[in-house]
Amino acid sequence: MKLHSYLLRRLLLSIFVLVGLSIVIFIIARVVPGDPARMALGPRAPQFAVDALREEMHLDKPLVAQYYYWIKGVATGDLGRSLVTKRGVLEDIMEFLPATMELVMVSAIFVIVFSILFGTLAARYKDKWVDSVIRIMAYTGVAVPSFVLAVLFVLIFGYLWPVIPALGRLSAGVQPPVSITGLLTIDSLLTGDFPVFWDALKHLFLPALALAIGPIFQEARIIRSAMTDNMGKDYVAAAVGYGIPNHIIMGKYLLKPSLIPAVSVMGLDIASLMGNAFLVEVIFNWPGISRYGMEAMLRKDLNAISAVIIVFGLIFVLVNILVDLIVAYLDPRIRLGGKL
Amino acid sequence: MKNWARLRKKLVIPGILVLLVAMLLAGCGGGKTGSQKGAPDSQQSAREKIIRISEANVPNIDPGVGSDYASSIALANLYDTLVFPSHDGTLKPWLATDWKTSSDGLTWTFNLRHGVKFHNGDELTAEDVVFSMQRMLTLGEGYGYLFTDVVKEVKALDNYTVQFTLKKTFGPFLSTLVRLYILNKDQVMANIKPGPYGKMGDYGKDWLITNDAGSGPYMVKELKKQEHLYAVKFDHYWGGWDQDAPDSFKIIGTTSPSTIRTLMTRRELEITDQWQTKEALEALDRIPGVGVNAAFTGTILNIMFNTKKAPTDDVHFRKALAYAFDYDTVVDKLFPGSRKAKGPVSSVLPGFNPNLTPYERNLEKARAELAKSKYASRLDEYPVELAWVAEVPDEEKIALLLQSNAAELGIKVNVVKVPWLSFVDQVAKPENTPNASTVFVSPHYSEAGSILESRYHSKSTGTWEQCEWLKNAEIDAAIEDAISTLDTNKRFEKYRAIQEKIVDLAPTIWAFDQAEKRAYQEEYVVWPAADLIKQGKPVTSVMGYMFYFREFKVYPNKVPK
Q1: Is B23 on the interface with A (CB under 8 A)?
Q2: CA triplet B321, B325, B331: central angle to 5 degrees?
Q3: Mutate to test the interface with B, among A82, A111, A164 (most CBs of B within 10 A)
């Protein structure tokens, strides 16, 4: 199958997945107890105000009609109003998504760089002390949830040893750059504001690391195991026989095929960074979409809940497609349509 | 030479690892430049005369919409009201210099202060008051419920005289006016967008999400959803300024304990929210220069008995539990700093009855009451279902205490943890409402009538504020009669009589009078309400007004190093 038709098929399938997700989320958000209009306006709000809000949100209509109005709105870019922030959900998402994306992107960079590095080192020094150290770090890193790491980081770096900012996106008194992409690091670079870039980068470091540590070590273990498996293959023995230096064998011939199993997991892990970001954002006082989503769930903000989950679903789907493309690139059998 | 090459090879990998660890720990973000830059930031922000306070959320600063704690603090500082709540419970003239009431109590006429400026320089007139009230009535959101059933009409008699006509006589009307924040009509009208309110469009709701149209001592500089509200001093405030008053304030929307502790240590937060746990407050208290303030603002933790469901439908059964409950353990051990509640109304609310005989733990009396109950011989058949709200973990302590106290009488209590959303749904019907529910309730305005009406009048059944389903016609009539009484003394007398009746019906165990605890930087901040509390004096129970920042003082030179 050609790559572009493969891609097209995946995209079409994704639309079905998203529609399915939208129906499930729509129903779940509405069967959760509590009248959202009443909750938004408070127990003492006069009935006329509650009724008006229910009507505005189409809550007075059957579930099917509610879905119709909602999906019609989504199709035209109107995600409805948030009951908590009192403004358009799309506007909220546009404001909060970049903060999370920036965090997840930096985490993803950490995951990619360090997992490959640690995985390769562990394989290269299999059963030596380097391998043992990385293994111990891996057990710890995978076992400790990211929000626990987040609390530890805030207490250590915010409280005991304040060498690096532990809260928020920018230091007090630092003016954010003009918003172009919403990503402070990119925007500050584009506007040539290097002090702000440096400040934003420093703020990203701890939350991104708290999110990344689990996936880094999970991936590192997978890479290590794939590499040690591949080391026993004939082509490696042949390369050694030809006298090719070790680092070339590792970097050029071993790494690429060994990354295939890791890349699929890495893709999912990177997508789940957004989910893990829920508590991490709360702890680091990070104004991202995960924190927004959490508040929406606690306060039954229907439109916000549905929108946040659809956005997360969309990102999952896109990351999965991207992962498949990368795997196809790494594995010629897939790229060239061969049978596995 | 060969050895050196081998050694070098051996050192490469450990070297890389060491370098990486160093990068992770400090190099990448910390470094010299980082810490040098970080330090001036915190020092600089500490040098500002600013009050930063954490709250559960970033406020809704639209006076027609916001009503939670954070919003009430913001509104009290961004807007002015006709009257202002003093700490001693009285109301003082504010935008209104004086007022008079018609003999039937249905017409209230207020004379306005001349020369009051809005933040944009416009003068505040009676038209603005009319507009603000009409907006409240139309929206029906936020604190609008205080007025929708009460105010019939509002009109400007001239530029500085405004008249309210009420639908019915309502004694506490003046008290509720501390929630009528006066908006600049012209400014709002200049910013309306299309919306559901006819020619008023969206009534300026969209614009007022991030802007203010007030005349209060502070004006909005920046509102970032999920982050903070930042407001700065309005230099031309009609009330004038003390030179040590804060130049700005910030309400930060977070209660995460690690975040709060970090900010307090770095002197980047002056006052914490009230949601910090006992342990977190103890840790904050250990930071040099930080103290903990405990204020009584009228909130009571209630164990509400469903009076329409067996066995709590029986008054003797309820009284048995009320006598069995260990009030001392609650205030001494579980919630130190709180105090015993005497009855349905907190002692800080005007109209509270100090002569009530509260229930005390007395197992003999409890057994005697239980013996009179129709369920006495069939206790096994009637276990009590006790629900506590999952989002407030402290309530579990109370639930478990009652469970163990009740066991001493042979009453079985099943403790259930219920998420808030489910709880709100559940208590909408008497048959679904648990036998007992632990719920904190605060007054809506500063008078006993507020609590009596929202807790025990039949119209509040079906809401989380009344899980008792009391539905007592005599109590309803008495409450209605009391709140329609104009004469304050007579009104308070009636409130006191109602409190006695309610105590006798024992629909509730009033577990304790909650102390709202907040850590604050007592070294460099003067917080008038906290000082009054230290002197044993009362402070206002009108939510938000304890944080009227204009009366605070900040001394940046006293910030501990």
Answers
A1: no
A2: 155
A3: A164
In terms of Cα–Cα distance, which of B187, B284, B299 is closest to B520? B284
* Alpha-helical segments (H) within B157-277: 173-176, 185-189, 257-265
- Nearest Cα of chain A lies from the Cα of B37 at a distance, in angstroms, of 9
Residues in chain B closer than 8 A to A87 (CB atoms): 206, 209
Q: What is the pLDDT of residues A290-304, one digit of tens each?
A: 889 988 888 888 889
ipTM for the whole complex: 0.79
Residues 415-454 of B with CB under 8 A from A: 421-422, 424-426, 444, 454
Nearest Cα residue to B439 out of B451, B457, B448? B451
Cα dihedral sign, B78-B80-B81-B84? positive
Would you say B275 and B253 are in contact if contact means Cβ atoms under 8 Å apart? no
Model confidence at B15, pLDDT cuts 50, 70, 90, reads: low
Residue B144, chain A, CB below 8 Å: the answer is yes
Beta-sheet pairing, B107-112 with B96-101: antiparallel
**Buried-exposed string B18-51: b where 16+ CB fall within 10 A, e elsewhere:** eebeeeeebebbbbeebbebbeebbeebbebbbb
CA distance B79 to A130: 64
B139–A165 C-beta distance less than 8 A: no
SS3 A63: helix
Render pLDDT for B162-193 as a digit per residue (tens, 0 to 9). 999 999 999 999 999 999 999 999 999 999 99
Nearest chain A Cα to B54, which residue?
Answer: A285
The answer to whether the Cα torsion of B52, B54, B60, B63 is positive or negative is: negative
pTM above 0.90, yes or no: no
Please choose, from the candidates A76, A102, A86, A17, the residue with its C-alpha nearest in 3D space to the C-alpha of residue A310. Answer: A17
Please give the structure tokens belonging to residue B352: 């509270």
List all residues of chain B from 279 to 338 with a beta carbon under 8 Å from chain A.
none
> With an 8 Å Cβ cutoff, is A176 touching chain B?
no
The amino acid occupying position A308 is V
Q: How far is CA B331 from the centre of its chain?
A: 21
B30 contacts A85? CB cut-off 8 A: no
Over the stretch B305-326, which tens digit does the pLDDT of each residue have? Answer: 999 999 999 999 999 999 999 9
Q: And the tokens for A255?
A: 């790494």
Position B34 scores a pLDDT of 34
